[in-house]
Write a structure and sequence with these properties.
205 residues, alpha/beta, SAM-dependent_MTases_sf, 24% strand
Length: 205
């Protein structure tokens, strides 16, 4: 798994490298982002927190339409690039493997979104982190996570076989059949949508 320094190095070429990518891990990448963007209600009073904001690929489109964006990332260079796109956004330098920063304690969001980031933490931490995020939602708020993910363990294992040496053994991809029941056991309303061979959307209310 890349460190913050590794993401700093990748930042300048991040979006170009995704455009050139085919198959795992970015199959359907822009379709997933568009799906999340279409969920967000476009309103000047809408507040969105983007977890692992990177260069702002996910939230820049809704920012241009007047939505208020807060972004969290552990890479200073990624935040620098996102801030250049979204100068009126508010950004937090923090590693979400340790949860959410204390500065966000008083903020309540209409949407907490994330794209291709939460796979950096193992499933038990994902569950705890999602529960923590729920505490920063408004009563009608929604968490939307787009990431490398699979409906079943069989689908996950098949992708791993097909990907061969390209498979990243340091990442922890969601399997809906496993993580959805765990979240529902916490009293959350959960929907999972598979959008590509290795990409899916998790919606939590």
């Amino acid at each position: 798994m890349l460190t913050s320094e590794g993401f700093d190095t990748w930042a300048g070429d991040y979006e170009e490298s995704i455009l050139k990518s085919t198959g795992y891990p970015f199959d359907g990448y822009y379709d997933l982002l568009a799906y999340v963007q279409n969920i967000v209600e476009i309103n000047p009073d809408t507040y969105v927190l983007d977890i692992g904001i990177g260069t702002g690929a996910l939230t820049y489109e809704i920012y241009k339409k007047g939505v208020q964006i807060h972004g969290l990332d552990f890479s200073p260079k990624m935040i620098e690039l996102a801030k250049a796109k979204m100068p009126n956004g508010e950004f937090f330098l923090f590693d979400f493997q340790h949860g959410l920063p204390s500065e966000l304690g008083c903020h309540k969001y209409d949407y907490i979104v994330s794209s291709y980031a939460i796979h950096h933490i193992e499933d038990p931490l994902k569950i705890n982190f999602i529960i923590q995020m729920k505490g920063n939602l408004k009563d009608s708020g929604v968490i939307v996570i787009a990431d490398v993910s699979f409906r079943t363990q069989e689908d996950h294992d098949q992708c791993k076989i097909v990907s061969g040496d390209h498979w990243d053994h340091d990442e922890y991809y969601m399997v809906a059949d496993s993580i959805v029941p765990q979240l529902e056991a916490q009293g959350l309303e959960v929907e999972y949508i598979q959008k590509s061979s290795c990409g899916g959307i998790l919606i939590i209310k």
